[in-house]
Amino acid sequence: MAWIAVAGAQERANPLIVGVEELNYLPAYGRDENGEYAGFGRAILDAFAEDHGYDLVYRPLPITRLYSGLLSGSIDLKYPDNPRWAEDRKAGRTIAYSAPAMTYIDGNLVTEARDGHDVELIGTVLGFTPWAWLDRIEDDSLQLIESTDLVPVLRQLFAGRIDAAYANVAVAKHVAAENGLPADQLVFRDDLPYDRGTYHLSTTKHPELIAQFDHWLEDNAERVEAMREDYGVGVEELLEPNGE
């Protein structure tokens, strides 16, 4: 399945294929109720493409296959990406990364009933790396359960089968609400290790396009920030209780 966005009048000879994650991770990015790629990720890329006259084809792929597509060149661009992700697979390859398009917080969400309890079993999406917990996972003091999508992770959490869900905090609350789960009972455990990172656009084929995207981000800083606010993907409000 591919989602096509026609953008602008000065098209390239061929559309640009953007590899995206085949999962529901809204409002950051993912499938909407109609199965279309949506969220902040699409909004920002469509806006850039429209301003520069590019056609984009969004190609949803499992996370592991996305890296294969990036490295083989079967996709033109990957979103989101980060220099830290899949470092072993990317070793020795030249990859151009954009400036940050979005900042996120990946952390531990628990139910109100489990707030303050020890965390020994966490769930996350297959292909995601819980950076803040790597030491404990590697020494087997913390067990990790992976699912192909965030919805089953959250269902396991509310069923009491895992102690915490490790995910983008804003996304987890949105996905819970959209799937009939009690999002108001989710608590972000900011007293536990969490990771603050950034989403980037990447490519092995078009470094000149990455440079162009960087200039666009700089020139449209207020517009992009308004998009972040519209989609509810800002992070500062999550850190206010800590005064960070």
UniProtKB/TrEMBL annotation:
Source domain of life: Bacteria
Residues of the Solute-binding protein family 3/N-terminal domain: 15-230
Source species of the chain: Aquibaculum arenosum
InterPro entries according to UniProt: Solute-binding_3/MltF_N
Protein name from the UniProt record: Transporter substrate-binding domain-containing protein
